[in-house]
Amino acid sequence: MKANGRVPVRKMYKLYINGAFARSESGRSDQIDGENVAHASRKDVRDAVVAARAAQEKWAGQTPALRGLVLYRLAEMMEARQAELAAQLVTGGTVDASEAEREVAAAVDRTVWYAGWCDKYLSLASTRNPVGGPHFNFSTPEPTGVVALLAPDEPALLGLVTAVLPVLVSGNAVVVVAGERDPRAAVVFAECLATSDLPGGACNVLTGTRAELGPVLAGHMDVNALGAFGLDAATEKRLAELGAENVKRTRFEECPRRKAWFDERYDDLERVLAYTELKTIWHPARI
């Protein structure tokens, strides 16, 4: 009971699947600083992948300009909740208030940066190919499909945004496992997703452990690509082997020191293209 006689309303940290917030079907949760955070199960992973597959075509089918506006609205929602996002980072105990504010500002800026690429990356990545014969030949990138991501523990918010935003730009759908050390900021980020006009299922946020959920995602036959940060060599090898069962694209990255995440190298078009496939088209030259 608070001093003013009111009962405190404690925040519930749930999974974000198919545009809705849910507890884990297993009923499990983790205690972080006395607060309960849902612990996703294999069934939750499968539900998230089904939702992502159903939403991917709709998300990719929107015009590039509209996708950019949706991601820009995500930045608006994050900007409006700067104080709450920063407070969650401070509660995690790894940063002070000023550093938390800096991280939130960088995450918002990075979201805006990638939003701007939605209707521009095709112009830079598409090519006209020289061929012998009376044909017009060109290649253009298309989204890979459903992409699973294992986000870094630190920085909790900026690392998550850096993992997710480039993948969404081209029209992929995402299932992301938030950093397991303290995923509470990731849940607030999911609440921003819910009010950003992103189609339900286009980005699903799970909380749990990489050791449990990573192999499930790597071995899932309806996941087209897997990206992960900060894994050891043995884990990377195991996930790559599981992904090879359906020729899944895998991309493993090291986790640099915290300050490196703020570098412009993470504002990079290559991160968008890493989760696209090139489609090459031939036309008779006289058409």
Q: Tell me the number of helical segments per DSSP (H or I, 4 or more residues long).
A: 10
Give the tally of β-strands.
12
Shape: globular
**In the residues, how many domains can be counted?**
1
Largest sheet: 5 strands, parallel
Radius of gyration: 20 Å
Tell me about this structure.
It is a single chain. The chain has ten helices and twelve strands. It has one domain: Aldehyde Dehydrogenase, Chain A, domain 1, CATH 3.40.605.10. A hairpin with a 2-residue loop joins strand 1 (15-17) and strand 2 (20-22). Helix content is 43%, strand content 21%. Strands 9-8-7-10-11 form a five-stranded parallel sheet, with helices on both faces. It has 287 residues and is of the alpha/beta class. The N and C termini lie far apart (76 Å).
Outline the fold blueprint:
Layout: E1 15-17, E2 20-22, E3 29-32, E4 35-38, H1 42-61, H2 64-80, H3 82-91, H4 97-115, H5 121-125, E5 127-129, E6 135-143, E7 146-150, H6 156-169, E8 173-177, H7 184-194, E9 203-206, H8 210-219, E10 225-229, H9 233-243, E11 249-253, H10 269-273, E12 276-284
Parallel strand pairs: 7-8, 7-10, 8-9, 10-11
Antiparallel strand pairs: 1-2, 3-4, 5-6, 6-12
Helix pairs in contact: 2-4, 3-4, 3-7, 4-6, 8-9
Summary tags:
287 residues, alpha/beta, Aldehyde Dehydrogenase, Chain A, domain 1, five-stranded parallel sheet, three-stranded antiparallel sheet, 43% helix
Short account of what is shown:
This protein is α/β, with parallel strands linked by helices and 287 residues long.
